[in-house]
Amino acid sequence: MCSVTLACSLRTLGMVSKICGIGAGYVGGCTLSVIAHHCPKIQVTVVDISENIIEQWNSDILPIYE
């Protein structure tokens, strides 16, 4: 990645205050949890068609299996 592209990306990231991800499965849930962890100033919201998955993410038993 060239420095110009990186500078534009960092400048754009500074303007982001909210992110909404669709899908809390193996990819979406993990990706958005990492974003939330590393970007505490950004409000991260995840939506999914499965209420069960959302309930698991909101509980102490996360739906991550390794």
UniProtKB/TrEMBL annotation:
Q: Which SUPFAM superfamilies match?
A: NAD(P)-binding Rossmann-fold domains
Short name of one Pfam family? UDPG_MGDP_dh_N
What does the record give under GO molecular function?
NAD binding; UDP-glucose 6-dehydrogenase activity
Reactions this protein catalyses: UDP-alpha-D-glucose + 2 NAD(+) + H2O = UDP-alpha-D-glucuronate + 2 NADH + 3 H(+)
Describe the location of the UDP-glucose/GDP-mannose dehydrogenase N-terminal domain by residue ranges.
18-66
Q: Which InterPro entries match?
A: NAD(P)-bd_dom_sf, UDP-Glc/GDP-Man_DH_N, UDPglc_DH_euk
The family database entries (Gene3D superfamilies) matched by this protein are listed as: NAD(P)-binding Rossmann-like Domain
PANTHER family, per this entry?
Answer: UDP-GLUCOSE 6-DEHYDROGENASE (PTHR11374:SF3), UDP-GLUCOSE DEHYDROGENASE/UDP-MANNAC DEHYDROGENASE (PTHR11374)
Q: What is this protein called?
A: UDPglucose 6-dehydrogenase
